Amino acid sequence: MANMFCFDPAEYADQFANDRFVHIKNGVSEEFLAQMKEQVAQSLRGPLMQEYAIGDKEQAIYSLPTDSNYLQQLCDAVGGVCGLDPAKLILSERHIKTYNDDANPNPLPHKDRVASEITVGLPVTIPAGSKLVLYPDRELSLNPFNSSTEHKNSLTPERSPQALLRDEDRVEVSAQPGDVVMF
Predict the structure, then answer these.
(1) Which residue positions in the chain have pLDDT lower than 50?
(2) Could you tell me how far CA 30 lies from the centroid of its own chain?
(3) Residue-wise over 102-124: b if at least 16 C-beta within 10 A, else e?
(4) pTM for this structure?
(5) What is the C-alpha separation between 61 and 53, in angstroms, rounded?
(6) What would the DSSP string read from start to end of 95-141?
(7) Which residues have a Cβ under 8 Å from the Cβ of 167 and sit 6 or more positions away?
(8) 3-class SS at 59?
(9) Strand pairing of 171-173 and 132-134?
């Protein structure tokens, strides 16, 4: 069994505490990245999660290999970086997200659902020029809904993320396969 990560979570704890996100270049081990690439390809050939097909995005389920301690490694890494007790972390989603070729390269901002206290991205393939855009200092309240779409639909136009964040400083993360992003 391979190690999932090749970084020391303690080295990123202060950065996460200060910036509310970290981008760890080459944080995924080569062995685990190879396993993810194979499973992602296999998952996308199987049934997709039609109930989560949103506009220009398809989703499938990613399952950690059962003959491993990857879930514990993931919780230990997230807990160590984010200052949380790994024993109390719950994996709430494990989606493989793939965007259609005609996807909007600049989608509207959204707020993840309440169960996603910490989002962890492990890029497997990334189109050239793709960026993750974060607003780590704004709109820190919780989305009390089960989806970003429900949250968006509950807001007036002037309270929408695109209106509130229009003139705010943004952070652009150019993650590559094998990187780790937590926010």
Answers:
(1) 53
(2) 19
(3) eeeeeeebbbbbeeeebebebbb
(4) 0.83
(5) 12
(6) EEEEE-TT--SSPPP----TT-SS-EE--S---TT--EEE-TTS--S
(7) none
(8) strand
(9) antiparallel
Beta carbons of 175 and 167 less than 8 angstroms apart = no
CB proximity list for 73: less than 8 A, separation 6 or greater: 3, 4, 5
In whole angstroms, what separates CA 15 from the centre of its chain? 18
Q: What is the dihedral of CA 50, 54, 60, 64, to 10 degrees?
A: -130
Q: What is the arrangement of strands in the sheet containing 120-121, beginning at the earlier edge strand?
A: 22-24, 180-182, 120-121
Q: How many residues belong to the chain?
A: 183
> What are the tens digits of pLDDT across the range 96-144?
777 767 777 777 777 776 667 888 999 988 888 888 999 888 777 778 8
d(CA 90, CA 106): 31
114: left (phi over 0), alpha (psi -120 to 50) or beta: alpha
| Residue for token pair 């909007």 | 104
DSSP class per residue in 83-103:
T--GGG------EEEEE-TT-
Give me the amino acid identity at 120: V
